[in-house]
Every structure is written in structure tokens, then in C-alpha cells.
């Protein structure tokens, strides 16, 4: 059983293909055939392009996600420290009041 290796396409070609398919009056299947790619592949690229545009994500950059993760990690560390401090204070006051 020979498995075919999936073709990889450069981002520039993907962008060009999506813009060509969206801007053309031709059906997407015909545009895909002209470009030598599968119609399903072109549909997938168009969906990803539309989703990225809808979300406002710039092509290929996830910097805002990394920034958000970093911020959330800092916030989580602070909340963990506050929780531990409150637990210690509760234990202390429980000991003082029970005497």
C-alpha cells in the first residue's frame, strides 16, 4: 500500500488562489482546475481565509494569542498567591478563635 504524500503549497500561492477564486466570475471548481488543485482544497482555503478575515486575524500571525496567554498566566499566578494567602489567614484565624 503506497500512501501518497500530501502536497504542500506556499502561502503566496494559497493567497493568490483564494483572491483569484473570490474575484472571479467562474465557479470555484473551474478556478481550482485552472490552478491545478483540488476543488476541495480551494474551498478549504477560502473558508480559512474568510474565517481569518471575520475574526480580524492577520495572515499567519498569532502574536495576539501569545500575548493573551502570557497575560492569563500572570493573572493565574497572582490569583494562586492570593488564594494561598487567604487559606493561611483562614487557618490562622480558625486557630485563634478556637482557643
TrEMBL record:
Q: Which family does it belong to?
A: Belongs to the transposase 8 family.
Cite the GO molecular-function annotations of the record.
DNA binding; transposase activity
Coiled-coil spans are 62-89
Q: Which organism is it from?
A: Methyloglobulus morosus KoM1
Q: Name the Pfam families on file.
A: HTH_Tnp_1
Q: Which SUPFAM superfamilies match?
A: Homeodomain-like
Q: Name one GO biological process term.
A: DNA transposition
Q: Does the keyword Coiled coil apply?
A: yes
Write down what this protein is called: Transposase IS3/IS911 family protein
InterPro entries, alphabetically? Homeodomain-like_sf, Transposase_8
**Keywords from the named record:** Coiled coil
Record bears the keyword Membrane: no
